[in-house]
Amino acid sequence: xxxxxxxxxxxxxxxxxxxxxxxxxxxxxxxxxxxxxxxxxxxxxxxxxxxxxxxxxxxxxxxxxxxxxxxxxxxxxxxxxxxxxxxxxxxxxxxxxxxxxxxxxx
Amino acid sequence: xxxxxxxxxxxxxxxxxxxxxxxxxxxxxxxxxxxxxxxxxxxxxxxxxxxxxxxxxxxxxxxxxxxxxxxxxxxxxxxxxxxxxxxxxxxxxxxxxxxxxxxxxxxxxxxxxxxxxxxxxxxxxxxxxxxxxxxxxxxxxxxxxxxxxxxxxxxxxxxxxxxxxxxxxxxxxxxxxxxxxxxxxxxxxxxxxxxxxxxxxxxxxxxxxxxxxxxxxxxxxxxxxxxxxxxxxxxxxxxxxxxxxxxxxxxxxxxxxxxxxxxxxxxxxxxxxxxxxxxxxxxxxxxxxxxxxxxxxxxxxxxxxxxxxxxxxxxxxxxxxxxxxxxxxxxxxxxxxxxxxxxxxxxxxxxxxxxxxxxxxxxxxxxxxxxxxxxxxxxxxxxxxxxxxxxxxxxxxxxxxxxxxxxxxxxxxxxxxxxxxxxxxxxxxxxxxxxxxxxxxxxxxxxxxxxxxxxxxxxxxxxxxxxxxxxxxxxxxxxxxxxxxxxxxxxxxxxxxxxxxxxxxxxxxxxxxxxxxxxxxxxxxxxxxxxxxxxxxxxxxxxxxxxxxxxxxxxxxxxxxxxxxxxxxxxxxxxxxxxxxxxxxxxxxxxxxxxxxxxxxxxxxxxxxxxxxxxxxxxxxxxxxxxxxxxxxxxxxxxxxxxxxxxxxxxxxxxxxxxxxxxxxxxxxxxxxxxxxxxxxxxxxxxxxxxxxxxxxxxxxxxxxxxxxxxxxxxxxxxxxxxxxxxxxxxxxxxxxxxxxxxxxxxxxxxxxxxxxxxxxxxxxxxxxxxxxxxxxxxxxxxxxxxxxxxxxxxxxxxxxxxxxxxxxxxxxxxxxxxxxxxxxxxxxxxxxxxxxxxxxxxxxxxxxxxxxxxxxxxxxxxxxxxxxxxxxxxxxxxxxxxxxxxxxxxxxxx
Lengths: 106, 895
Prior knowledge:
The complex is a heterodimer of chains A (106) and B (895). Chain A has helices spanning 8-21, 26-36, 45-57, 81-105, and strands spanning 24-25, 61-67, 73-79. Chain A is an alpha+beta fold and 106 residues long. Chain A has a single domain (8-105), classed as Orthogonal Bundle (Arc Repressor Mutant, subunit A), CATH 1.10.10.10. Helices cover 53% and strands 15% of the residues of chain B. Chain B has 4 domains: 2-69, no CATH class; 128-326, no CATH class; 343-514 and 763-893, no CATH class; 528-761, no CATH class. The A-B interface holds A 25-27, 44-47, 49-51, 53-54, 56-59, 65, 68, 72-75 and B 2-4, 7, 21, 24-29, 31-33, 54-57, 60-61, 64-65, 67-69, 71.
């Protein structure tokens, strides 16, 4: 399997999962996803930021501008309670989905 | 959901900051990516470029982020901004649309404000929903607007249902300060009145409990802010000032703030409050209005139950019960049955004026559809580029809503101006404070939305249904035709509604003119009407309970007043020009009977309980009929012969004489009024017959009248003097005032009006209603005719090619004229027929439900439609002439 692009729903799930561990900014989220998936998953950077803003508009994350080193400001995102609930339910969905696929292929 | 609203609000208000932060966020990302690339060994230039490529372009990302943020509200806002820009670019159309809508919304808002001020506005007190009114009610009479004073006291001490019960009664009082006397609307109240209502004084204080005790030393009065401003010029030393109210000296102890006007009819605000006990000695037998505040925790239903059970204990008269009604349901506390301002009448007026708005909406709809035809290309391109039709529909509808709200904003100004005009024409006696408050604004907003939707629905459908192929290809005449039809249809409701408005207005105006020109049987042009009062001497007031002493004093007072009025009439007769002057106890202007209400001729039993001859009675002095320009048809007028010791006489009106003694001579016959229970019948001999008088407001027969001479039926109370002279009325009035002052030091004229003014006050509501209807009708007609002209004119413009071809093929001018006129008339004809049906229906429904609609007489039924047809003819003819004059060469060259 090479590097693949994922659908929007999957991207949401990855973002939420990443933020479940700790608040992070866009760059950090992207790095972490690529890191943990050992480069199997590439996040299309052009779709990362729209997704983050959409999640915020839906109330699943909140964000704030934070001053980092060398005086640059970055927007840091944090998971909300609603986001956590969404993550759990999507997690369950994915489990069921992958189980079904595995059964089909077996 | 809250999140969406918050982010939307943030976007709207902090656009710049949000854009800046997005910029920073992406810059941060780019920096980190560049750094990562540098550590991988790229050169700074390469690193930067690679970072940009990876991100996929900063601007595109920003675009993508912005797209994510779009919600439904966002797109509506964007549409609204675009619509505003479009309107700005076509100022003529925008101005026309806004003005038309503003007229419709302004008129409706003004009417609604008046209805709101009279019917809907709650009392400006604390927690008005806790206030209730107590009334007597009986199955026979319905609600009586009062309860007995003693019963009011009973509920006050029995504190089960109410935390406080206050009594009040509105009446006019003579207030004299610094020598100037004025007749002022006041209320007699119990001392806890202001406490029950929770109204605080702005200056000084309200009543103390001890002011419910009789006192002669210091009587307290509270005045209104308005009175303080107008009569006392905001005197800072107002507290403690002494005034005379009716005949007694009172001390002003407080001023009540500008927003409280007493609990009474909204158009006669109260200006002075005094307590029952201190103002009148016989208050216990009065009927009073009762206001109560519900005890905390007691609901209305519970209070009603408590009152019903407790009330049974004290009411032994069969059939009479107590009623407890919430104050927000009874807007006129002294008219709980709603006879004076029936709510239905208000609803009817609002509906009629709404018709104008409907016409305006149809008009704008037609205009928009015409304009929409020119925009088919624009709509076709939008649809072709992928916009869902629903989106196009929404955008067009938003455009109309923006126009409607623009019209609504201007409409508020129109309403404000109309209300000012309304105040200018209102007689001074009625003071109605009509503010534009929250409820009115909400109503105006609802009108904007409604008008926008109504006017914009058809044009939006027309735009969204655009046929892309035919619009962007070569236009055919066939598809254009169907759109022309849709525009024509907008004219039909306009014409129909105009007809309804004009006929209803015409009928009412006609009946009003007929009423006024018919005359009332007496002169309404020249007589002056002055209300005079002779102060009752203090001795009579504070006399004890000794009946004999009271009777003696009463007799002395009666004699004193009789002498005074005799002297006064003599003095007035001596005024240069020798005007006629007379005394009367009540003017004949009111309809309905006043007085015993029944008269019996000899031979009838005085025990008849059903009024067979409802009659009015007036106590008049000699010369009354000459002053009022009434004719003594038979017999004689009263004169000095008719004194207390001479035989009792009376004069009857001609109509009554005909009824009681048809065909026979009335002179010398006896009449009487039904006596009080147990008393004997007192027969009066008829010595004269006078011409009839008609009441001003009723439309039926003249009122039967019996007149008795003042010399024989003397009572101690204030009288009305009518004076008719040749000279300038203002000078005459001041001369009469001087005569009054010289006849007795304690006498005063507290109100002086001309008969014209009296009549105008009574006719005012009708005149106002007729004016509103007439204005509405003409406005509707103007809109409809302009709309028709616009539609026909536009259609002619579209058909120029066709007309040119016809002309080239040999059609005469007349043929072309007829072609276009037929087009216009077919549409207008449908409108007229529809309008006629609607009018018939409206008149029938209105007669049954609302008021007695004046019957449609032949003149109105013919004149109004003829007028409408003439206007329609004109509106069609002008464009038709343009078509007929077409030069086929010019048109064909453009083919």
